[in-house]
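Today's session is about reading a structure prediction critically. Students often jump straight to the picture, but the first step is always the sequence itself: look for stretches that repeat, for charged clusters, for runs of hydrophobic residues. Only then move on to the predicted structure, which in these notes is written as discrete structure tokens rather than atom positions. Here is the chain we will use throughout the hour.
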Amino acid sequence: MTHTPSSQGGSDAVRIRPATPDEFDAAASLWYTSVLTMPDVNPSAVSLPRLRRRLYEGVRTGWHLHVAELDGRMVAMMALNPAEATIDQLFVSPEFQGKGIGPRLLLAAVENMPGRITLRTASNNHHARRVYEACGWTRVEPPEDEEDACIYEWAGKTL
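Below is the predicted structure for this chain, in token form.
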């Protein structure tokens, strides 16, 4: 599915589409760069090779990897897990945050996986939480073993 949004801030020219295998390394690099900007992340605990392996393993086991591009440049990535109805990863390149790309990715996820969908984010990732809540996602109680997580749910509403 290719999703070209019609409006919303600076996202008019953003194209969301399935990633091709030759883009997996670039998607992992974008993921890595984005993670390093998150609150309370210890840079020595994150490595590009580890995220790259995780991305390839995720795709091998069922992730549907999507990218958002603007003027031919990858500006975001999203990993959907249709078997579990989850958004496993969603990262927007730091310089493109706040331009409506995250909401466009959430819309693409809803279009790809109609029905109930969940996603998880760190409780201290306030920027992402504001985006999810502004887009109508509902916070639900996380499992007891994930007290530092926020779980959000989309229950088949229409965006």
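Discussion point for the tutorial: Strands lie at 15-18, 64-70, 73-81, 86-92, 116-122, 138-140, 149-155.
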